[in-house]
């Protein structure tokens, strides 16, 4: 299991479109992926889950991955949210 | 995951008056029990539950009025422990100056309400039990099927939301899609609700997000529902044996409460909505005392006994 703390730098945070993109990316991996914010954990492969957290720009989240490709998944998703668009 | 509550939230919720302005309102409340420290006032300090909110009513304060200032100060000092979240005075009674001094020094908030002690205690207990109840977020769909709260779980993309849509079309009610916030109430019941931001929404791949209440009407949604049955959807695995009779009941533990679970294998051509409807009805039948599997088993026993004669 990999647990990675990342800061969300996307200008709009994980608003609807970026959230959809994030979920699409997460679904490319076969491991279980979840996001934790303020002690709330949701499934990162579900768009509703991500949006229920209302992750804004500048907030810190944990990306938790578990499975065969956990390393790559954590890396790729962290890169996705930490980039400044 | 234990929920934490700050004194500030109680002050705001009940509109309490803060006596010592500089007190620390971010102190944490960890237990839902309350304490009326009458015995502490009388000088008996053993088993003093200092981590609870302390409520001073007419009895406690009248008693403390009868003490001399020095003893009163000592008792009040003992009342304000490191882990005491706050002290609440009921009935809008005057606060002893010794208590204000000690509380000031230790930054413990003294709050005051106009409500009578017993009524305030019961209101506060209700509020605390709700707020401090253990909660958990689960990935799944919660839907009310014939009055049975059915939680559908399974991997992403297995078809939970699509099944929910079919159930909605059949007249059942959606509580939450994808994210279910579960609270365990005092009497070990699990209550599920949706996070406010995605309430009444359903995501259907290929269509997008739909608003169930606008599309199907107010009768198609519920705000909260008690969980009674879990349906686990999984890809059909030919090496795994699935329940054929229903004699044994599989259980799943959520927080500290056990719920019956039916594992349903998914395969093209299986109408999941119909299966879930039947599972819910069968659950109701079982809870009313009729179990088809037991009935079959007893018929079989009778028949075999007859053949032996």
Automatic annotation (TrEMBL), chain A:
Quote the CDD domains the UniProt record gives: PTS-HPr_like (cd00367)
Keyword Transport part of the UniProt annotation: yes
**Subcellular location, record wording:** Cytoplasm
A Pfam family that the UniProt record links to this protein = PTS-HPr
**One Gene Ontology CC term in the entry:** cytoplasm
Q: Which UniProt keywords apply?
A: Cytoplasm, Phosphotransferase system, Sugar transport, Transport
- Gene Ontology biological process: phosphoenolpyruvate-dependent sugar phosphotransferase system
Major location, coarse class?
cytoplasm
Q: Is Acetylation tagged as a keyword?
A: no
Ranges of residues in domain HPr: 1-85
Regarding protein family, the annotation reads: Belongs to the HPr family.
Describe the task this protein carries out.
General (non sugar-specific) component of the phosphoenolpyruvate-dependent sugar phosphotransferase system (sugar PTS). This major carbohydrate active-transport system catalyzes the phosphorylation of incoming sugar substrates concomitantly with their translocation across the cell membrane. The phosphoryl group from phosphoenolpyruvate (PEP) is transferred to the phosphoryl carrier protein HPr by enzyme I. Phospho-HPr then transfers it to the PTS EIIA domain.
Q: What is this protein called?
A: Phosphocarrier protein HPr
TrEMBL record, chain B:
Q: Any notes on this protein's domains?
A: The Walker A ATP-binding motif also binds Pi and PPi.
Q: Which Pfam families match?
A: Hpr_kinase_C, Hpr_kinase_N
Binding of Mg(2+) occurs at 161, 203
The gene name on file is: hprK
* Protein's UniProt keywords contain Transferase: yes
EC nos:
2.7.11.-, 2.7.4.-
Q: Domain (HPr kinase/phosphorylase C-terminal): give its ranges.
A: 131-299
* Domain HPr(Ser) kinase/phosphorylase N-terminal, residue spans: 6-128
Per its UniProt record, the required cofactor names are: Mg(2+)
Q: Which UniProt keywords are listed?
A: ATP-binding, Carbohydrate metabolism, Kinase, Magnesium, Metal-binding, Multifunctional enzyme, Nucleotide-binding, Serine/threonine-protein kinase, Transferase
Q: What else is known?
A: Both phosphorylation and phosphorolysis are carried out by the same active site and suggest a common mechanism for both reactions.
List the active site: 139, 160, 178 (proton acceptor), 244
Q: Which residues bind ATP?
A: 154-161
What is the protein named?
A: HPr kinase/phosphorylase
Function according to Swiss-Prot or TrEMBL: Catalyzes the ATP- as well as the pyrophosphate-dependent phosphorylation of a specific serine residue in HPr, a phosphocarrier protein of the phosphoenolpyruvate-dependent sugar phosphotransferase system (PTS). HprK/P also catalyzes the pyrophosphate-producing, inorganic phosphate-dependent dephosphorylation (phosphorolysis) of seryl-phosphorylated HPr (P-Ser-HPr).
For this UniProt entry, which segments traverse the membrane? none
What does the subunit section of this Swiss-Prot or TrEMBL entry state? Homohexamer.
Top class in the EC scheme: transferase
Task: Give the molecular function GO annotations.
Answer: ATP binding; magnesium ion binding; phosphorelay sensor kinase activity; protein serine/threonine kinase activity; protein serine/threonine/tyrosine kinase activity
What GO biological process terms does the UniProt entry carry, in alphabetical order?
regulation of carbohydrate metabolic process
Catalysed reaction equations from the record:
[HPr protein]-O-phospho-L-serine + phosphate + H(+) = [HPr protein]-L-serine + diphosphate; [HPr protein]-L-serine + ATP = [HPr protein]-O-phospho-L-serine + ADP + H(+)
Q: Which InterPro entries match?
A: HPr(Ser)_kin/Pase, Hpr_kin/Pase_C, Hpr_kin/Pase_Hpr_N, P-loop_NTPase, Ser_kin/Pase_Hpr-like_N_sf
**Which residue ranges does the record annotate as region Important for the catalytic mechanism of both phosphorylation and dephosphorylation?**
202-211
Family statement drawn from the similarity comment of this UniProt entry:
Belongs to the HPrK/P family.
Q: PANTHER family from the xrefs?
A: HPR KINASE_PHOSPHORYLASE (PTHR30305:SF1), PROTEIN YJDM-RELATED (PTHR30305)
Residues covered by region (Important for the catalytic mechanism of dephosphorylation): 265-270
